[in-house]
Specification:
The complex is a heterodimer.
Chain A lengths: L1 H11 L1 H38 L5 E5 L17 H7 L5 E14 L4 E9 L1 H5 L8 E4 L15 E5 H7 L6 E5 L6 E10 L4 H6 E5 H8 L7 E6 L5 H15 L5 E5 H4 L1 H39 L1 H10 L3 H37 L1 E2 L1 H6 L7 E2 L5 H27 L3 H4 L4
Parallel strand pairs in A: 3-8, 5-7
Antiparallel strand pairs in A: 1-9, 1-10, 2-3, 2-6, 2-9, 4-7, 5-8, 6-7, 11-12
Chain B lengths: L4 E14 L2 E14 L3 E5 L6 H8 L7 E6 L2 E2 L5 H11 E4 L11 H11 L4 H14 L15 H14 L4 E5 L7 H18 L2 E5 L3 H6 L2 E6 L2 E7 L3
Parallel strand pairs in B: 3-8, 3-9, 6-7, 7-8
Antiparallel strand pairs in B: 1-2, 1-4, 4-5, 9-10
The chains are: A alpha+beta, B alpha/beta.
Chain lengths: 412, 232
């Protein structure tokens, strides 16, 4: 019955209730949309980074992360380690030979990162396989012949800079004695990261090893997962199993967060920002709600006096005011979150142009940003709504409970 | 306090303090109200009748003296205990009807039974019976703003007696009613007193009420000036 009284009281002052409800819902809708935008943007930055230059997990020779020297490489083409890590359910490994180099066409040259891969393995690990816009990964070179140049897959922006297309010849230089070779452009890729597209050349692993002069060794084993949420378990598995399998080799096994802590901290920052956004909205709301409730209490002093005369306890009166506050705030939160989630779902499907960011080269995102919400993003407003409702109701509720029935019942 | 005493005031004094001014509203009042009475506190404005009714109804606390309700000393009771006592032992009818505006007539009556934690079916049945007994069956689903003053006051009486209290305290119950409606209301309360033994104590300066009361306690300047009992 208290809930019924609370509800009907809110309906009785429907204009005031509607104003508070709108204020809460609009505030939440706006902050939810902003948070979703931020999450979408940052997640795409991270996804792009992980799917291109980083990987969920990377295995290197010890020291490579701090100083990516060509000499710091894993023996045996990384085959044993790759096979071992792939024993983890849903894990895919791609050994990579890495090195800096210079790409030269007939017209231009550019500094590049040479990435030697086994195309079949790389397709399962990075986004490059899905980003090919012309041609393909390089095929194995059938023995010798002038025309049988090894292939190279170039980022589309690099190809533009070098002014070459598929089938045209480039020369790649790598430091060292054997570091020179002619290649034919086998394909072009276009990922979400302009930087990556501008400076990366994919070669077949054996070609890159020959160019870099590292024999059968590789510099990195990039690992991806079917379900990225299992990264922590994969990390634990790899750190426990791999060193045991190769006791003679000092390994460095790092998750993408360990390799790029600043990028990882951006995501944490976004989560904190979400809380700050909500807390700011609700702090403002609390004053509005308290004001509305206080007005409502002042208008009902006599009614409260009657209820107290009938035997309603002071704490039950507190409950009544608290209930009204809760209904208002949770109603507003539900409306705001509902609209916000719907809005984000639509934008999450259609996307919002990310040109402003990609163009500036500040963040590597795709052509469109897809706002998204984490579960906590829309659950936390409800938790905050309860706290706000309670805080906002304290003063009016105590005011109501402290009314002296004898005076209240005759209040005009 | 006698065996049949429902309310008792012992040397009750009430002093109101505002700024530096003290106003003695009641001075050393002794009063016993017994079961089955149909009594009226009368007196001019400011004589202290409403103050005394509030003290007897535990809506206020005396500055000095003691108040007993159904044999229990309420003077030292906590706010929660007094609320509980009001809920179970006292019924109130106010001058301005004072029904809960957002509840229907039935819900208004039911509300007290809900506070008494009566089971849902029972409270609904008792509330309905209370209203129907008072001839208010057609008002069950109406809210106060859909009722006349007289109808609201009758619902207030139904609410007051639904919890089967020891006594109904009625503060100027006829003050806002026209003569006919006031007489009807008094008929109703008199009938409840006669047939069901409901004890009534009125605070009033309405001659119609005083004419019906079987005991009239007259207050002047916060003291009992006369206490007249009339034969039934």
């Amino acid at each position: 019955m208290l809930a019924r009284i609370a509800w009907r009281n809110l309906l009785r002052g429907w204009r005031r209730s509607a104003v508070v409800l709108c204020a809460v819902s609009v505030g939440l809708f706006a902050s939810l949309s902003l948070v979703a935008w931020g999450h979408g943007l940052l997640n795409q930055v991270v996804q792009t980074a992980v799917a291109t230059r980083l990987s969920l997990l990377a295995i290197h020779a010890k020291g490579y992360q701090a100083d990516p020297d060509v000499g710091l490489a894993l023996a045996d083409g990384g085959r044993q380690l790759a096979a071992l890590v792939e024993r983890f359910p849903g894990a895919h490994a791609s050994p990579r030979a890495l090195g800096d180099g210079l790409a030269q066409s007939a017209r231009q040259n550019a500094h590049v990162t040479l990435v030697g891969v086994i195309p079949e393995a790389e397709r399962r690990v990075s986004v490059v396989g899905n980003s090919i816009v012309a041609g393909d990964f390089p095929q194995p070179t059938p023995g010798g012949g002038v025309r049988a140049l090894p292939g190279a897959l170039l980022g589309s922006e690099l190809a533009d800079d070098l002014r070459v297309g598929v089938g045209e010849k480039i020369v790649l230089h790598a430091p060292g004695e054997s570091g020179l070779g002619a290649f034919r452009v086998s394909g072009l890729f276009h990922s979400a990261s302009p930087d990556f597209d501008k400076g990366t050349v994919f070669l077949r692993l054996e070609d890159a090893q020959r160019l870099l002069g590292v024999g059968d060794r590789v510099h990195e084993i990039a690992v991806a997962l079917d379900d990225a949420r299992a990264l922590d378990r994969l990390d634990a598995f790899a750190k426990a199993e791999l060193p045991r399998a190769r006791p003679g080799e000092a390994l460095e096994i790092l998750t993408w967060q360990e390799r790029e802590p600043r990028l990882a901290s951006l995501l944490d920052l976004m989560s904190s920002t979400a809380w700050i956004a909500y807390a700011t909205v609700f702090a403002g709301m609390a004053f509005g709600i308290a004001n509305a409730l206080l007005m409502s209490v002042f208008e009902r002093i006599r009614e409260f006096g009657v209820l107290r005369s009938l035997g309603l306890q002071g704490r039950q009166l507190v409950e009544l005011v608290l209930l009204e506050s809760l209904i208002l705030t949770l109603g507003g939160a539900a409306l705001g979150v509902g609209l916000g989630v719907a809005f984000v779902l639509v934008l999450g499907h259609t996307g919002v142009s990310g040109d402003a960011f990609a163009g500036a080269g500040v963040l590597s995102v795709g052509p469109r940003v897809y706002p998204r919400l984490e579960s906590g993003d829309w659950l936390s407003p409800f938790a905050l709504a309860v706290v706000t409702a309670a805080l906002a109701a304290i003063w009016p509720a105590v005011k109501a409970a402290r009314l002296r029935p004898a005076e209240a019942v005759r209040h005009i | 306090m006698g065996e049949e005493a429902v309310l008792e005031a012992r040397r009750v004094t009430k002093v109101y303090r505002a700024a530096a001014i003290e106003t003695v509203a009641l001075a050393d009042v002794d009063l016993v109200v017994e079961r089955g009475e149909f009594s009226a506190l009368s007196g001019p404005s400011g004589s202290g009748k409403t103050t005394l009714l509030n003290l007897l109804g535990t809506l206020d606390t005396p500055t000095r003296g003691r108040v007993f309700v159904a044999g229990r000393d309420v003077t030292e009771m906590s706010d929660a205990q007094r609320s509980d006592l009001r809920l179970h032992e006292l019924g109130f009818v106010f001058q301005s009807y004072n029904l809960v505006p957002v509840l229907t007539a039935l819900e208004n009556v039911e509300f007290v039974l809900l506070l008494q934690r009566a089971p849902r079916a029972e409270r609904r049945a008792r509330a309905l019976r209370s209203l129907e007994d008072l001839g208010l069956g057609e008002l069950v689903e109406k809210r106060p703003n859909e009722m006349s003053g007289g109808q609201q006051q009758r619902v207030a009486v139904a609410r007051a007696i639904a919890s089967e209290p020891q006594i109904v305290l009625a503060d100027e119950p006829t003050a806002n009613l026209d003569s006919k409606t006031a007489e009807d209301l008094l008929d109703l309360m008199e009938r409840l007193n006669r047939e069901r033994g409901v004890t009534f104590l009125f605070s009033t300066h309405d001659p119609r009420v005083m004419a019906r009361a079987r005991r009239v306690i007259r207050l002047v300047d916060g003291r009992i000036a006369s206490d007249e009992r009339r034969p039934q």
